Amino acid sequence: MKNVLTNNKWFLIVAILFFTACGGGDDDPVTITPPIATTLAGDYSGNWDSTTPSASFFGVDVSTRLTSNAQETRLSGPFFISPNLEPRFGATNDGRIVIELDGNTITSFTYTDAIPGCTGNFSGTGEITSTGALVIDFTGTDCDGDHVGKIVLTKK
After folding, report:
1. pTM of the model as a whole
2. Which CATH number is 81's domain given?
3. Which residues contact 31 (CB under 8 A, 6 or more apart)?
C-alpha cells in the first residue's frame, strides 16, 4: 500500500511540474499567421473609385484573376474593367496588376493599363482586411489625367 501511495505522489509531482513548465498564462505571446499568397490567389471582383482634375469615377466594376509566386510574396494577374473577368476594352484583358505582400500589408501595387488609346500606369499600397478584402490606395495617370483613388477587391 505504501508503494502505491508513493507512486501516486510521484505522478502528481511530475504532472504539476509538466503543466507549470508549459506555461499557458496570459503573458504568453500570441502568434498570428498572416494570409499567405496561395490562400489569397483566386478570382476577385470589386470597385474602382478615383478622381482626376476633369472627371470622377465611382463604383466602376473591376475584376482580376490573381496567382501567387513561389516565394508567397506576390500576387499578379490580368485586370478587367468589368465585374466578370471579361475585357471591356482590350482583346484579352484591360491590363495587368502586381501586388507585393508583407503579411497583411500590400507594400506595392502596380497596374499597367492596356486600354487602347488610354494606356496608363498606376501604383499604390494597401492592406488585407480581416475579411480578406484587398484595399488599395493608388495614384496614376492615363488619358483622363492624374488619378487619386481606391480599389477594393473581394474574393469570389
Report:
1. 0.77
2. 2.40.128.30
3. none
